[in-house]
Amino acid sequence: MNNATAYDKILVIAAHPDDEILGSGATVKKWINSGTTAYALILAQGVISRFSDVKGEEKEIQTKLNNLKKESNASADIIGFSELYFEDFPDNRMDSVDLLDVIQSIEKHVERIKPTIILTHHTGDLNIDHRVTFEAVITACRPLSGSSVKKLYSFQIPSSTEWHFPYHKNSFSPNTFIDVSSTIHSKIEAMKCYKSEMRKAPHPRSEDILMTIAGQWGSVANMEYAEAFELIYSIED
């Protein structure tokens, strides 16, 4: 099992508001409780793809975007993120943006924060924004001389990762399990801030199913509750 130390800085790079909690909220809370510092970067706007007439519904969209940011900040306070950063890439249309633009936006934050551990999306997710985010992160965080990043993990997003069914050659295959028995309830409370994103069971983004998922990964690693990750690379001194 891999744990962050008080000397580490963590950066969670997520495509949409709530992904930072769904993917790694309980793990980040645990590491913060141990003295680490954590930041989150959210790349895309969220919400907008649910509207059919973007120009005709601008006022309602802006209201929802403002509410979503408030929900994000409230959620971040529960987890204990030191700072929450937002970019403004189009929701569910990040493949319409030059990948270099996404890479450079990530590089800017990595250079300023200098994280040692990065958590981000899985390469095989159903959601196109998640896949673009992974490609941009792995490029921005390639292990060049002087890079601060020593470990890169990918996480699953319930209602996205598992729905890119196993025919896909890049199915999520976790090899790292973090015991979050002490912090899973903080993750649930943080997700409840996202009133617009939570659903009722049996939807994967419901309280009951999020607890079930954590219990299932816990059973794999002989724990009560766990979050699962794929370790992409680890650079040891």
List the helices and strands and how they pair.
Blueprint: E1 9-14, H1 19-33, E2 37-44, H2 58-79, E3 83-89, H3 99-113, E4 117-121, H4 128-140, E5 151-155, E6 176-179, H5 184-192, H6 207-220, E7 226-234
Number of strands: 7
How big a fraction of the residues is strand?
A: 15-25%
* CATH T-level fold name: Rossmann fold
Q: Which second-level CATH architecture applies?
A: 3-Layer(aba) Sandwich
Mean pLDDT: 90
Question: Which structural class fits the helix and strand makeup?
Answer: alpha/beta
Element-by-element helix/strand order: EHEHEHEHEEHHE
Percent helix = 25-40%
- Distinct helical segment count: 6
Global Rg: 17 Å
Q: Are there runs of 5+ residues with pLDDT below 50, and where?
A: none
Summary tags:
globular; 19% strand; alpha/beta; 37% helix; 237 residues; 7 strands; single chain; Rossmann fold; seven-stranded mixed sheet; 6 helices
Task: State the gist of this model.
Helix content is about 35%, strand content about 20%.
Protein described:
This protein has 237 residues and is α/β, with parallel strands linked by helices. It has one domain: LmbE-like (Rossmann fold), CATH 3.40.50. It is built from six helices and seven strands. The protein has helices at residues 19-33, 58-79, 99-113, 128-140, 184-192, 207-220, and strands at 9-14, 37-44, 83-89, 117-121, 151-155, 176-179, 226-234. Strands 3-2-1-4-5-7-6 form a seven-stranded mixed β-sheet, sandwiched between helices. The two termini are 18 Å apart.
